[in-house]
Each structure stands twice: as C-alpha cells, then as structure tokens.
Write a structure and sequence with these properties.
7 strands; two-stranded antiparallel sheet; SH3 type barrels
C-alpha cells in the first residue's frame, strides 16, 4: 500500500486506546523529529505523517501500520 497513500488519504491505525482515524499529511523520506521524537525514514523505508481526526495530534507511522479508511 505504500505507493497508494497520498496527502489527504483517510487512514486508520491501532493505538493503546483502540483504533484511531485520521488523514495522511505527508510522506516522510528522511529523518525528522516529531514532538521531540526522532523518526527514522528514508526513500527505501518511508513513514507517513498522519493527523488524528479526533485530537489533531501528529504522528509518524510505517506504511504497514496504516489501513485505508473510507474514500479518499
């Protein structure tokens, strides 16, 4: 699914509180820091910056942790 996730794609992912829904903000292809946490990403091993619909919080996730939700 990695190639099919673009900005605005609706996705869901598992958290300790259950399933969270949000949207892809961007594909990360280089190391970056989010909320003080280092995110290791590269072109060969990208991650996606997602924004929670409920809280607006941003987080990075590997493509395998995200599931397409609804139409986008």
């Amino acid at each position: 699914m990695a190639g099919s996730l673009k900005k605005g794609t609706e996705v869901s992912w598992k958290t300790s509180q259950g399933t969270t829904h949000g949207k892809v903000e961007k594909k990360l292809t280089s190391d970056t820091t989010i909320k003080g946490h280092k995110v290791s990403a590269s072109k060969d091993d990208p991650q996606y910056l997602v924004v929670s619909d409920k809280t607006g919080a941003k987080a990075a996730h590997k493509p395998g942790a995200l599931k397409r939700a609804g139409k986008s």
